[in-house]
Every structure is written in structure tokens, then in C-alpha cells.
Amino acid sequence: MPFLPGKAMLGSYMALGGKSLSQSLSLRRGQLDREQRIVHRFYPWQGYIPTSEPDVSKNSVLLVSWHGAPLGGINNGSSDGNIRSVARKLKAMKRPILLRWGWEMNGDWFEWSGPQNGGPANYVKAYKRIHRIFDEVGANNIAWVWSPNWNSSPNTTANKIQKYYPGDAYVDWVGVSGYNFYGESPSTLFNPITKLYGSRKPIILTETAAVKSKATWIKQLNTWVKKTPSVGAVVWFDTDVQHDSDHNFRFDTDSSALAAYRTMARSSRFAG
Known about the structure:
By secondary structure, this protein is α/β, with parallel strands linked by helices. The chain has helices spanning 21-32, 72-75, 80-92, 120-137, 186-197, 214-226, 255-265, and strands at residues 9-15, 38-43, 61-66, 97-101, 142-146, 173-179, 203-209, 231-239.
């Protein structure tokens, strides 16, 4: 899916308490008077991987966050069969897919992270191997999203974001996760990654939401995106049932936040 300078796609990961995906999409359509340009889904490393997403409109781009696994089992070739199977299933969807494999690798909280697997070089090796197998399968509907967390943990020279970058030939979009858990502004969260890669690749905010001062922060985000032409997509983490968090990430928790989000969604900047 091409990046259109000056235009950004707006979408969400949606898991709203008591609602199916179809019902959630319908609710947001009514609130925003527009479709989700991107619909974000999470798939496991192995096991059930769908071959279609019937609730996701063909006019929406599917963003797939595909879980990683301990990197040793990828780099020694023992996972090649699983990788090939997933590549075939995503190819069979016959729709544009943004694929975000092994996200937030510069943090220490996932089993595929650099800190848990001997450092960034092993992550880069695994990423390249997966990319090669997808190419061999002919999954040409895939655009690759390399997506670190906005800051590294641990924050050391050896664990810098740049050390995880597999190279321009392996990345179509640069993603980033960032939330205002401690009152961070959009510029604090996203300027560093934009300065590093925005002149080379389109930027996608693959996970973002506000948990504090929502209306104010959404207005700040809208302003920041308008001032940052390299941003090609924003994907809100739209859920109130995240199993590992007590936060409510929905943008309709109060009328002022919903109004701010509606204004952002109707902006010409988000006509991508």
C-alpha cells in the first residue's frame, strides 16, 4: 500500500468489552462518520491463523501484528515450516496486509526481545530469515512494518533502537508504540523515531492511545501529525479489556475526548 505524502490513514485495534469486531466497527462508524482505514489484528506465532477477515472491509488495510518466539528456534531453521505456513495463509487472503512481526523488540518484556535473546543481532537475523521465506512463498501482498517501542528497556548503548534495524531493503514502514502513561507528549514519544527514519521510510504509529488528559492529548496528536509529513498512518489502541492492563484506552470515555477524536478523524490530513 503506497504512502501518500500529506495524507495519513487512521485506524484502530478494536477490542471493546461486550462487542464483537463487527459491532465495534459499527459503533465507531456511527461515531466518526467514516470507516476505519486500518484494522489492526493480533495473530499468534503458531496455531490458529485465519485465511480471511470477513468483518474487515476490503476498503480497509489489514494490519497484522504477528507474535514472535524465542529467536534461537527461528535462527536455527526449526521454525521454517511454521513461517512458511503463515506466509501462505496471509498470501491467500489476497488483500493488502501491513505485517508487524516481533514488535517492541527493544523492550525486555517479550520472549522475542533482544534483551532476552542475546542482543539485537539475533533479532535482525530472525527478521531477515522470516522476510526471505515470505519472499520465497511469493507473499507479495505484504508490506513489512518494523516496529520498536518508543524507548528502549534497558536504555543502554547495546540496546539502542538503531541496532535492531534490519536495513532499508527489509522495511517498508517504520512503526512505533507509544502511550502517554507518564504524561508524555506526542513529540516526546514519536520525534526520536521520526528523526531517525522519517526521511527514508513512512512512519506508522502502530500502537498509541491516551490514558491521561485524553482530549488535550488527542488535540496535541492531531497537531503533531499535521506538522510531521512523514507520518503515513495512526492506529489507535482502542480497548477497555486489555488483559494485562487496568487502563481504558478507548477514546470515547468522555464527550470531550470523543469530540477531539472526531475532529482529528475528519481532518483532511487523515484522508489517506
